[in-house]
Amino acid sequence: MGIILNRSTSKYYVHEFIPEHNHILHYAECTHMLLSQRTITDVQAFEVQLANDSGLTQKNSFDFFSNQAGGRANIGFTQRDQKNYLRSRRQKKMAHGKVCFLLYYFQKKKLDDPSFFYAVQLDNSEQVTNIFWVDARMRFDYELFGDVITFDTTFATNKEYRPFRVFAGFNQYRGIIIFGAALSYDETIDSFLWLFETFLEAHNLKKPKTIF
C-alpha cells in the first residue's frame, strides 16, 4: 500500500493498494511472540509473583521458567510480559493503598511548608509511575551547592521492590546532601525524562553544571 500527502489539502490518500501479500505473514517458529498468542495463566502469575517476592531478578526467573517449559517458545509469554505484569500488580496495590495516604501527607506538608514541592506522574491507564518531592532544606542546599549533582539509582529497594531514587550532591564539608527524592514504578525513558524535568521545575529551572 502506498500513501501520499496532498499538501494542498493537508490530507493523506492511498495511491496504490495491492491486496495480495508478497511475503510470509509470520514465520511459524515465531508465532509464540505474537501478542494474540501470549498470556500469563493464573498458575504462571502465581509463580512469577513468588519468584519476585523471593528476590530473584526478572531475567533469572524468566530463564528458570524457560528451562522448566523446555524453551522460551513454550512458556506462553515474553520477558516483557512478565515485567509488565509485575509493574501492573505493584501499581494497583499502590493505587488502592498507599497513594491516598502519601498524597494526604504531602498536602498537609505543603500547608505547613509552602516551599514543599511534590509531583505525581501517571501513565495512560491513570496508574502511578513516579512520585517526586523536594522540601525546603533540599531547595536551600541546591541553591548553594547545586552546580554538581548525581542521580543515584542504586539505593536499595523497599520490600515491594520499588526503587528509591535521589538527586544528591556535596556540601562544603564534602558531606552528602539530598536535592530531591522519588519513588519509581517505571524505568522507561519517558519516566526518567519526567523525573529530570520535574526536578528542574522544583528548583525554578536552575540547571546543574555537571551531572555524574
From TrEMBL:
Query: Where does the MULE transposase domain start and stop, copy by copy?
Result: 148-212
Could you tell me which Pfam families the record lists for this protein? MULE
What's the protein name?
Protein FAR1-RELATED SEQUENCE 5
Origin organism is Platanthera zijinensis
